């Protein structure tokens, strides 16, 4: 699917699923608390589809798919039929109102746990935390060498590259020195410290990652497969051969070999390749071809495939998967709160905020990687929605919960004047955040770091 249309499609799928689940939380608990629900809407604005259910609720899908709402019978919005007063929202106890408002974020949290649970039962593929450092970067200067396996980050064990980078991203947000324990390819363990305090203030995580320069390690330059009928096979290359040099230039790893191959073949397709086989170095002459394979753009090829990076499959039974889901949900929540805390204190830049454009792009990437990766993405966004909605900002669920907590303390509801003022302040804050996030999204597209 075209990346643009794919991003739009998967954004609509993401918002449709998560918003529906969030609003269903409000709806379900409201009905259990005896409140009449007038409308259940996925999206805002003009309805493009609607029907009246047997329960009298109007269900609709609206034209603007960037949210949704549940409209309940509420005396603050007009006169209520005396026969329906017992089903009116504000007439319910404060605890029931708290339960109804908290149900939306609560259902998003439940969705996250279930999504991660299914993901771990299906099997979450990842690569091992075996890394290298780009030359003249912070990671290289800190002592990271090609093939180092990261064992712990800040004392916490990591098993996958994704978990490793998430833990390091948390350190980059706070810009504090971060200890790593490593194991060399020869088995020797050592500890280094990434001097993240040297990162400049006011940049986003992408810019910090570029300065850090940490990357997955490239596989060794060992031939895994030789395709019959192509130049390498004709020259006598065999599976298991280690490529030593290309046109006299030493080859360090597979990525270095492929880059060098494209460079030198563009000048002359006749290549002098030295391979090591059974302890002996064997010179081969290979004539590269410029062609397309498997629908890919044309490029220089000789017909060999290298070994893949070491992979990790986190695949568990139902009980272990549920435990891992809870652990992952807790860890991701801590990461999100850490981000919010650093944004509030000014330690992290507001450039890290992302909006619907960014979500759409990431949704398309995760969807293209398979069901388990898309479930992970849905879980992450659902968790973010839960936390965002619980922030004590009027117009969000957290703002309403704040009003109800004040009501519990003072023994009477917050005045309508205070609530209205809070709504204006909350709306201004929300629009500012959305505008800033949208600006960041567009800026990343126009001027990528």
Largest β sheet strand count, sense and barrel closure: 6 strands, antiparallel
Helical region count?
12
- Low-pLDDT residue spans: none
Tally the structural domains.
3
Strand elements, count? 18
Question: Strand share of the residues?
Answer: 15-25%
Query: Which structural class matches the secondary elements?
Result: alpha+beta
- The outline comes out as elongated
List keywords for this structure.
449 residues; alpha+beta; Pdz3 Domain; 3 domains; 6-stranded antiparallel β-sheet; elongated
Notes on the protein architecture:
The chain has 449 residues and is α+β, with helices and mostly antiparallel strands. The protein folds into 3 domains: 92-120 and 320-449, no CATH class; 124-217 and 309-314, PDZ domain (Pdz3 Domain), CATH 2.30.42.10; 223-307, Roll (Pdz3 Domain), CATH 2.30.42. It contains 12 helices and 18 strands. The strands form 6 sheets. Strands 4, 5, 6, 7, 8 and 9 form a 6-stranded antiparallel β-sheet that branches. A 4-stranded antiparallel β-sheet has the order 12-11-13-14. The model has no long low-confidence stretch (mean pLDDT 87).
Set out the fold topology.
Layout: H1 3-32, E1 37-52, E2 58-72, H2 94-122, E3 124-127, E4 130-133, H3 138-142, E5 148-153, E6 156-157, H4 161-174, E7 178-183, E8 189-194, H5 205-212, E9 214-216, E10 223-226, H6 231-235, E11 242-246, E12 249-250, H7 254-267, E13 270-277, E14 280-287, E15 289-291, E16 299-301, E17 304-306, E18 311-314, H8 318-345, H9 356-368, H10 371-390, H11 397-410, H12 416-446
Antiparallel strand pairs: 1-2, 3-18, 4-5, 4-9, 5-6, 5-7, 7-8, 10-17, 11-12, 11-13, 13-14, 15-16
